[in-house]
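step 4 of 6: structure.
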Amino acid sequence: MYRRNWWLLVVIGALALSNAGSVMAQEIVAKESLDDWFYSRLIWGALAGVILGFLIGLLHLCRLSFEYKGALNINSRARRKLLVWAAAIILVVAILLLCDAWLLYPFGSTSLSFSEALTQVWANYRTVLILITTLSMFLLFVAVATRLKSDCRCRYAFIPGPRGK
Amino acid sequence: MSENYLIAIGGTGSRCMQAVIYLTAAGLFQSPMRILIIDPDQNNGDSVKTRSLADNYHALHLAPQPRQAERKRRVVGYSKLGEPVLFQASLNLKTGEDKAQHSIFWHNPNPAQRRFGEVIQYPSQRDEFKKFLDLFYEPNDLEMVLDVGYRGRTNVGAVALKQDLESTSNIPEVGLREFLEKLNIDLQSKEVRVFVMGSVFGGTGAAGLPTIPELIASIPTDVIAHDNRVRLRYGCAMMTPYFSFPKGSSTSSGPGTDSARHAVATQAALLHYAHVPPGYQHIYFIGSPGRPQTNSNNVTGGQNQTNDAHYAELIAAIAAWQFFALPHIHSNDKQLHFADSLQDKIDIGVTWKSLPVDPGKTSSREQMKRSLTVFTTLVYFYKNFLYERFINGQLYRNANWYKDNFGDLSLDEEIPLLQHLYEFSRSYLTWLSQIGETGKAANLQLFRWSALRENDPALADKYVGHLLDDPMGSTAQRSQAGFNDIYAKLDKLILRQAGTNSATGLFMFLLYTAVSEFCRENYAWG
């Protein structure tokens, strides 16, 4: 399941990069408005990553329950859960960006069709950058939040702590 | 701190001593203990078991736990934790650096194959005196080999035991001399309390109970100074019949034992005590009318004599606890303590409410209930969830509580101590479940007995929050996933500093802190 999520990410990235210099995009959506869209969404993406990182770190990962068998820590489970969350967040943010380009954002006064929004805005290296930024902020703030909360159950899962002898 | 002196006589006394050791481990006895098991049956299974238990206890006592520890608060700063509770009282600790233990067992240097006739030098007595002795002893008694005790013959035991004890009171390393020496040292500065436990229905106990104050009174003044003896205070647990065993056949080496005679023997012994009161200030009279079988075989003595535990032994240990906690004992006190489980003429069974703990002092009763519950939960948790993971794979190394608190300390180097803790835990849980089993007829409601023997971690996870059986307490909030709830409390414990050089001591302290916090919430203790 996780491998499939990673493949999805690779496909999205490749698609975006292959269309990065698309002539069509230049023709319908002006570069300036594409940049405006990018910067505004980059900030929102980063902010969403921070908030989600804190919330998922503190409210979910820090509260994972211990199991009566196996390891005496929940680090591996916390890491696996984080991967699932990361994949879900990429997917959701990617869909939101597509909907945003297609339905919400006014590129000049042009209203984009679904295929135009998909190929000229979404399948673009800028979208990949937004996704990477959102994901990075999410991962960073999960790690920071779980590490700073002294009674977090996975406090050493993402940023290592002291070593037990 | 004044030491508690305890003497256990015979197999029954040994089993009572086991109960005392468990209560001490749970933190009910805090003062140093000086204990002595007197059993002429030198290889008796029950006393061997008690000695092994005391060894485990001593090893764990020597693992120091942090004092004045402080734990990290959730937000900022530190808060103080209580002082360590478990395994705190020393057992027969020698003074000096080596932290060794004086023997807890009276080693009788006389040959095991002696016959009673030899003890009283029957063959060399004058004929007239022989005839006089024949009034008290049958030929069987005179020919009885004393290798497995006195086989229920109080008339034999009373003479042989006193004689053997007196002759060994000055011999080093047999246990008795060291016990008396320490007693003499303590008596020089303060009042000292001695508590004796034994049966009044068997041979050894019935012979030994009245013998101990007599023995100490008649000991030479170079062992215990005469002036010191006025500061001695005695208490005893007189165990009346509370168990039975199958009828056996007489052996070639002497008569066997028969639990059917216990009631008659008790009556005779009590009649004798009524005429010649033993010199105890406080007597705790303990028995159980149900008298369940605590052994499926008739074993006269020796290493195979290991009876199952019974709640009467727990009561004897509670009696000792109360005796040492008495505020004042006057030398002329003569008090007989007894209780039953009747409330408004209805038998409510043996419950936390009816246990004979200082009637009127609810705080003592509550303290005992809480201490035993926390200890039971802790050993159950350690035995079922931690030990295997510690020994097979050293999984503690990646645990947060270990990383946060242990620094340079390592449990890797203390595996034998972890094994001692496991042995002690296993033994305690077996003992407790035996009490549940043998006390069925008495409507015993203290713990959830069926859960105590559970080895399946999945079921233990469900049971660990339900070990206490207290009809008066609420069951609404009890944990359904005890492992997670206790371990989460252990996981978040961060001390300001380790405060000890023993990794096992630190581990026990952390686990105790987590478990007691869990029990407080789980059982809604205020």
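step 5 of 6: annotate
 - Helices of chain A lie at 2-18, 23-28, 31-60, 75-104, 114-122, 125-148.
 - Residues 15-26 of chain A have pLDDT under 50 and may be disordered.
step 6 of 6: archive
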